[in-house]
């Protein structure tokens, strides 16, 4: 049977889910799916998603910033082959991509890009536009 386990709230407000795939579940993971296809699917299925390596301190800061304004992104910890696929997708295999933030399917970049969007007052409107943040929750 499908094993979806929820591990209580994390220190940063997120929730860790662990999925044990089976073919009978709608949540099943297609093991034949390539890393590139899986990454593209996840980007298109999630309004705000962060791709990271485990124990990435910049990812933690990114999650805290988004959480502070009321957004709880999907966070995917990638294996090395998946990081290579993400690098190739983002910048032709150049510089490190961890963490990599996508909002509404568009690559925002890393922590520096997120902070720049926030400081220029462009982050919240972007999150409202993609539906990750409701406009009525904002203080005018």
UniProtKB/TrEMBL annotation:
Residue stretches making up the Glutaredoxin domain: 48-107
Compartments in which it is found: Cytoplasm
A family per Pfam: Glutaredoxin
Keywords of the record: Cytoplasm, Redox-active center
InterPro entries according to UniProt: GlrX-like_pln_2, Glutaredoxin, Glutaredoxin_subgr, Thioredoxin-like_sf
Family: Belongs to the glutaredoxin family. CC-type subfamily.
Name the UniProt record assigns to this protein: Glutaredoxin-C6
Originating organism: Sesamum radiatum
High-level lineage: Eukaryota, Viridiplantae, Streptophyta, Embryophyta, Tracheophyta
């Amino acid at each position: 049977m499908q094993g979806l386990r929820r591990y209580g709230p994390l220190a940063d407000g997120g929730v860790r889910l662990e999925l044990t795939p089976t073919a009978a579940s709608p949540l099943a993971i297609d093991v034949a799916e390539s890393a590139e296809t899986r990454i593209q699917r996840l980007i298109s299925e999630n309004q705000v998603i962060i791709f990271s390596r485990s124990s990435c301190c910049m990812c933690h800061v990114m999650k805290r910033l988004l959480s502070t304004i009321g957004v709880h992104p999907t966070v995917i910890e990638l294996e090395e082959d998946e990081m290579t696929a993400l690098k190739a997708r983002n910048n032709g295999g150049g510089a490190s991509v961890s963490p990599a933030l996508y909002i509404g399917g568009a690559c925002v970049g890393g922590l520096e890009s997120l902070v720049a969007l926030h400081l220029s007052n462009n982050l919240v409107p972007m999150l409202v536009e993609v539906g990750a943040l409701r406009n009525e929750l904002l203080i005018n």
